[in-house]
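Feature request, filed as a ticket because there's no other form

It would be nice if the structure record came with a short human-readable summary line next to the tokens. Right now we just get the raw output. Example of a typical job, pasted below so the devs can see what we mean:
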Amino acid sequence: MQALDELAAALRRELIERARSGGARPGSLGSQVRELVDREAAALSESERADLAERVVRLATGLGPLEPLLADPEVDEVMVNGPESVWVERRGRLEPAGVSFAGEAELRDTIERVLAPLGRRVDEASPLCDGRLPDGSRVNVVIPPLAIDGPCMTIRRFRRRGFSLEELVAVGTMPEPVAELLARCVAARATVLVAGGTSSGKTTTLGALSGAIGPQERIVTIEDAAELRLRQPHVVRLEARPANLEGRGEVTIRQLVRNALRMRPDRIVVGEVRGGEALDLLNALNTGHEGSLATIHANSPDDALRRLETLALMADVALPHAAVREQVAAALDVVVQQARLPDGARRVTAVAEVVRAAGGAAVRELYSARGGGVRCRAPEGSPLARRLEEAGA
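Raw output as currently delivered:
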């Protein structure tokens, strides 16, 4: 296999040289490749020549060594840390991919083929780039001088079909009583914040929770890179846009949150709150847009509230900290904490009700995986219990 890969790379380089010198043969790329293979590798069998031609076409038009990885349904993320270091995540675990690029030039070619259809590029003046592939997968690229060991590319695979709460229970992400409680909270229009670290499954859980929203409601989703696939019939999907090469045309999450309020939403779903849009979201939640869903990076439910306050204070609006705390206490109802365990499994580790306290907002634990389950229900007479009772959920 390695000999065929080396031969395919050599034939690809010859194709490139032909194109640059103006000596390309007429016809499709496939026919050109097959003619080249038949001439340069006549000693191989018919099946080997067909395999070699397929490899050359893949190298010339696809993502080279990454193609088989992205075709593997078990691969959730591909991480390229330079030409000779490629890793993948399978079932929550990181492992070497067993493939590599012939050199930095080949890796750069692959990056260009990824970014070109997106209208994006990276160079020394702009060595960072984010984008979304046509299938919805997210891609991030960092090149030298920022990346010391060569160009880096991270591709997070997109799942065409999200998980339901029942499926998350089946795979062990959460116990059935927790799923039932959260479904009741969403149906009763409680505002739910999903917190956790990077790659802890926050967006997956957010998508599953959205399944409890009624089919008659109008939902507006706002994401940095569109990942959510909601199953309701009335969904409007908005995606932020980075600035172009001239530094113009940027549309931020904050602008989209503000615009969503003019779109008559019943629910607003924010893929991730990580900037000044936190204040606009709080304003929306406190002015009749309850029942919304969002995710945030945080280590615990209590930390999630503090981080939301901090992000709201980053909105360049001179609000007293106490006023922001009051808005957080009034806006949120439930915080779901999620984590990725050492074995790669994603778990809901805590569910907490947001309650008012002397200093603003505090949390009251309803479920803890560490404690084997605290109550997994809202205490009688609490604001959340009253909301569930009034909604009949």
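Something like this underneath would help us a lot:
The mean pLDDT is 85.
Residues 66 and 383 are 51 Å apart (CA to CA).
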